[in-house]
């Protein structure tokens, strides 16, 4: 067995993503319970936004607890190629990222293709900024990202006046020909915070007021960060409006811990009897906490402790204790609210009394992998019966995990969800492609082994 390399916070500037591309197999043995106090890395969604927005703000910004995963490093590398420098230093044992903002109009043409790596957020959100630049940018990604749909950002950006072409219609690599943009009033055809953010970022450069309307509320980190940086933004339920031209002013941010990473420990704690885990400084933005509501609706005991607001985002400690669960159905707006947590919930669902049904989740098929298929394949390998649908799946309750060879299929959330399942299996499991976890949580296996008893 090779071991996953856990990297400590870096203290110097990182020109390329810290993604370990060697294929690794991680062995996870069964555990009786999960115990301890742990902090998860900075939120990936928020870190992307702070990296991009502070890059186009005026002056320096400091960002504490910036996400350690490769995805956010991809965003930083792209910003560096666009002429924005940054460095990591250490302050009282804490890693801090300083971004030297170039201002709205200070980016420069990159000398090479930008590489978004595995990160859909980098490509989709950054496209909004690139669409307004007085130069052409080519942006690509890894073998997963080049197969993810980009028409959802190309369409509104072209309506605003940009020109975007791609060799494979609607898929990366994208050639983005920046243009002076006009504002739009855009109704999102899919519930997507990435697309909403892309249009709002383009709106920063457009003449007049850009409005984005969403069918269901998605994460609102972009709106909050824009307000914190002094943008002219109005936030109403399911509608955000930004006026172009107002400068952003650099400032200091502290990134909350990532609830989507905490989800794997919440699930593992609910799989193993007698577990008692405290996760510290986790982001509790109400647009992200559908997971907690759903777990509670199934009977989970979750306590929130020391909740406060930092940079407009709610942050607090979470305590989870093992509790037997009823099972349930995820559908409609709830599906959009916990889309990233479905791999973890799938694993939990088949051990509940009544099982789990997931509906309205066709978006799962266009994530880092087709997550409906990668979840179903690994559950079957573990002896679990599962029925898939075009937009979801069903697992019946009271099933037990058999030891198996798991495949991450290169998807971080699949690797981590099934590592949690492996703790409850009847023997040791091997996770192939375990290194995929480093996209969002390089320290994941070390933390899991530390908590497992
Ligand atoms: C994200 C939005 C979601 C989510 C992704 C991160 C974001 O994607 O699945 O992991 O940071 O805005 P969509 O916008 O495609 O739903």
From the structure above, extract its key features.
single chain, about 450 residues, alpha/beta, UDP-n-acetylglucosamine1-carboxyvinyl-transferase, Chain, 2 domains, four-stranded mixed beta sheet, about 30% helix, globular, disordered N terminus, binds shikimate-3-phosphate
Helix fraction, binned, reads 25-40%
CATH topology of the largest domain: UDP-n-acetylglucosamine1-carboxyvinyl-transferase, Chain
Q: Which structural class matches the secondary elements?
A: alpha/beta
How many domains? The number is 2
Distance between the termini: 21 Å
Tally the helices: 13
Beta-strand percentage? 25-35%
Please identify, by name, the CATH architecture of the largest domain.
Alpha-beta prism
Shape: globular
Main sheet strand line-up: 2-15-17-16
Structure description:
The chain has 453 residues and is of the alpha/beta class. It folds into two domains: 233 residues, UDP-n-acetylglucosamine1-carboxyvinyl-transferase, Chain, CATH 3.65.10.10; 210 residues, Alpha-beta prism (UDP-n-acetylglucosamine1-carboxyvinyl-transferase, Chain). It has 13 helices and 23 strands. The strands form six sheets. It has a four-stranded mixed β-sheet with strand order 2-15-17-16. A four-stranded mixed β-sheet has the order 4-5-3-14, covered by helices on one side. Strands 6-7-9-8 form a four-stranded mixed β-sheet. Strand 6, helix 3 and strand 7 form a beta-alpha-beta unit. Helix 7 packs parallel to helix 12. The N terminus is likely disordered. Bound molecules: shikimate-3-phosphate.
